[in-house]
Each structure stands twice: as structure tokens, then as C-alpha cells.
């Protein structure tokens, strides 16, 4: 299935460096504060799970190429000797060797050229530490059920089980991704531009109490100003909302929806009374008729 591909273990993420980076930031709060000061909107090292037992129980390091470009000099002071060099090299090589091929493959599947939608490298890298050392050590919720907002994501795992994908043929049934395999899965943007031909794959991460799990993810999305609508006329098998069909939902707007819910889910912001914290339901209301 083109919207979900198991990539095996030929490409290895540098998990010893990733572990070193998380351990360093947790051991050195002053360094973590300095890192977060380079991006004050929501910080780059997210630790809400250390205090909030209801949020996703994970720590996150955000590595956006755009943000890095702005503050590279400051990061140079304290992170490169603690695993950051290897992490950056990994993501840079991964992107240069695979991005073109994967966009070609997905485009061929739906009979369309996806490159005009991806001119400005709207890509992000994230590292995750599903450590047992959080506010709710026994919680199984590493990452709640969701779909990603972009075109596709590639998830690398440290050979520890935890990532699960909803069965396409049996909704509600969760299938573990083999612990030694990377996986590519499509998101909402792919779903919309393909007229529903590519699924936005629902997934989640379950924790095993007492077990630490690390992952690294590359997120690829269309450019923020791209209006999301089916790009092959007459082929859509989905009833989209008038806003989508009239080109009023661009990638930036979809990302804003997703960011707000992520902040709640990840414990970095609180929903107002009565607000629905289900990320998927909100996005479905926006894009489906
Ligand atoms: Fe995800």
C-alpha cells in the first residue's frame, strides 16, 4: 500500500547519539533553558511530561532546519559535542538521498506531479524519548492516536516495540510496527491532494512500563502557502468541505489546527473549558463535507 511502507533496517538512525543528547539536556537544565531560549514560541526541548501525567508521556527535541539556520551559532556552543552533530548528519543525508525518490513514488501512485507542491523544503526533524521517568511512569500513552498533517513522515525506531498503526481493513484494530523497521506513512496533506486515494494513516505509540524507547522522525509537508485540494479533477472519492474545494485551506492553516492540538496533547498548553482535545475530529470537521 503506497500510503504505508515498511522500509526495513537498511538506514540506521544514530540512537546512541540521540540518547546522549536527551541525557545531556535532562542533566543540564541551564543548557536546556538556553536551547529553548533560541525558540521562545514553544521551546525546542519539550519536557511537559515530567510534570503532567495526563499528556503524552514523552520528551521531544525539535530540530527544524529553518530554526537551526537562524540560531546555529548559539547551538554550536553547547550541543554539537553531545550527539547533535551525528543527528544533524543523519537527517541531512536522509533527506538528500530519499526525499526526491519518495515524492516521485507517491506522485506516480496517484498519477500526479507532487514536486510543485514541495518547493520550499517544508521539512522538520523531531527526536522522541519515551522514557519511563515521567509524571506517570505506568501510563501506556506515549503518543495518543493521531494522523500527521503533512505529505508523509518516516519514523525510525531503536528496536523497541511501541509504534502501532490502525488496520486499514479493520478500523479499531492496532497493528504493531516491527521494532527493527523504519516506516513511511502518509498524512492529511497527502489524503487531500490525492482525493482520498492515499490514506492519512492513524497511529499511536504505546509505552511499556519501565522500558525506555527512542525514535527519530522526518516530517515532509507541502509548502505552507499551498492550497490543499484534490489535484486530479474528477478522481476524488471523498466528499471534501466547501472550504477545501474552494482552496481556502492551505497547508499553514492545517498546520495551525494541528499545532494547537499538539500543544494540548503534549502538555505545553491547556485547552480552554469545553474545548475538544481530539486532534483528528477537529481536522475532519475542517476538511470533510
Ligand atoms: Fe505521528
Radius of gyration over alpha carbons? 19 Å
Structure summary, number of beta strands? 11
Low-confidence stretches: 272-277
Helix content bin = 25-40%
Task: List bound small molecules.
Answer: fe (ii) ion
CATH topology: Jelly Rolls
Q: What is the typical, i.e. mean, pLDDT?
A: 87
Q: Work out the helix count.
A: 8
CATH hierarchy class name: Mainly Beta
Largest sheet: 7 strands, antiparallel
Given helix and strand content, the structural type is: alpha+beta
Strand order of the largest sheet: 1-9-6-11-4-3-2
Estimated share of beta-strand residues: 15-25%
The CATH architecture term is Sandwich
The figure for the number of domains is 1
- CATH H-level name... which superfamily? B-lactam Antibiotic, Isopenicillin N Synthase, Chain
Give helix and strand order, one letter per element, not per position: EHHEEHHEEEEEEHEEHHH
Protein name: Clavaminate synthase-like protein
Organism: Hypoxylon rubiginosum
Amino acid at each position: 500500500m503506497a500510503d504505508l511502507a515498511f522500509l526495513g533496517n537498511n538506514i540506521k538512525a544514530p540512537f546512541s547519539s540521540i540518547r546522549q543528547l536527551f541525557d545531556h539536556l535532562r542533566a543540564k537544565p541551564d543548557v536546556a533553558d538556553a536551547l529553548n531560549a533560541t525558540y521562545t514560541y514553544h521551546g525546542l526541548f519539550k519536557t511537559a511530561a515530567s510534570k503532567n501525567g495526563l499528556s503524552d508521556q514523552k520528551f521531544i527535541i525539535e530540530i527544524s532546519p529553518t530554526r537551526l539556520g537562524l540560531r546555529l551559532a548559539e547551538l554550536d556552543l553547547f550541543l554539537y559535542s553531545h550527539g547533535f552533530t551525528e543527528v544533524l548528519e543523519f537527517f541531512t543525508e536522509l533527506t538528500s538521498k530519499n526525499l526526491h525518490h519518495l515524492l516521485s513514488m507517491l506522485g506516480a501512485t496517484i498519477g500526479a506531479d507532487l514536486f510543485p507542491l514541495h518547493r520550499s523544503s517544508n521539512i522538520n526533524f523531531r527526536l522522541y524519548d519515551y522514557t519511563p521517568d515521567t509524571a506517570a511512569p505506568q501510563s501506556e500513552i506515549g503518543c495518543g492516536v493521531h494522523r500527521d498533517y503533512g505529505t508523509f513522515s518516516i519514523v525510525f525506531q531503536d528496536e523497541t516495540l511501541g509504534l502501532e498503526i490502525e488496520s486499514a481493513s479493520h478500523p479499531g484494530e492496532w497493528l504493531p510496527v516491527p521494532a527493527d523497521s523504519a516506516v513511511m506513512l502518509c498524512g492529511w496533506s497527502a489524503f487531500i491532494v490525492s482525493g482520498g486515494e492515499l490514506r492519512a494513516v492513524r497511529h499511536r505509540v504505546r509505552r511499556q512500563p519501565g522500558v525506555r524507547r527512542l525514535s527519530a522522525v522526518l516530517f515532509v509537508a507541502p509548502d505552507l502557502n499551498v492550497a490543499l485540494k484534490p489535484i486530479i479533477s474528477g478522481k476524488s472519492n471523498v466528499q471534501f468541505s466547501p472550504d477545501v474545494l474552494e482552496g481556502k485551506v492551505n497547508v499553514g492553516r492545517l498546520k495551525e489546527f494541528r499545532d494547537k492540538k499538539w500543544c494540548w496533547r503534549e502538555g505545553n498548553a491547556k485547552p480552554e473549558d469545553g474545548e475538544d482535545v481530539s486532534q483528528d475530529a477537529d481536522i475532519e470537521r475542517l476538511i470533510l463535507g
